[in-house]
Amino acid sequence: MVPATEHHAGWRTSALLAAGAAYALGAAATTAFTLPADVMTGLPIVALAVLVVARWPLRPRPLQLAPDARGTHPYRAWGALLAVIVVWELVLYLARGSRGAHPTLSSMADALDRHYILKALVFFGWLSLGALIVLKGTQANAPSSTPAETP
Amino acid sequence: MSAAVSYAVWALLGVALLGLWARSRSAGSTVARPAVVVERLATGPLLRVALVAWWMFTGWHFFAR
Fold first, then answer.
1. Cα separation, B13 vs B25, whole angstroms
2. pTM here?
């Protein structure tokens, strides 16, 4: 039998996901460079700023590696990939010629935004990442975990 | 440089991203899972400011302006 607290947390997560999906569908219906788009994008930004100030510790304790993970470099591959992506983005951004021949992440996102469902999915992903950022920063004082253990 | 080359490199980077994600999910992997990477960034005194600023910028840039 599922404990009451887990049951409650499950319902809360489901409700948040449903609300986020509904919000993303609404935001995807707006057009960039209009007031509705500004409002629908600005509200989550303000909400995240408020949550971060309210929930994050003033002096965070950086995530420590578990003793058996010492000597490994669990973040190195991600850092290297991020660096390559940033360099490639800059190369294309600074290249002479049309944007069509030198697509940046922004121009590809613009192309994606022309399709309602795709835009809604990307917006939902952005909202979910924001929620994850708030959650992980809030857990700063929780026991540290090994890189491969936390989902 | 042609558009085909540009898109091909983006595709390769996308495949690398998925590969790294899959590798991080495998048992005994020394690569951190994406959520752990976010946790590390969100608990760094300066990194967390950069992370929040990046999230805000991407949302505003992609969906509003």
1. 19
2. 0.86
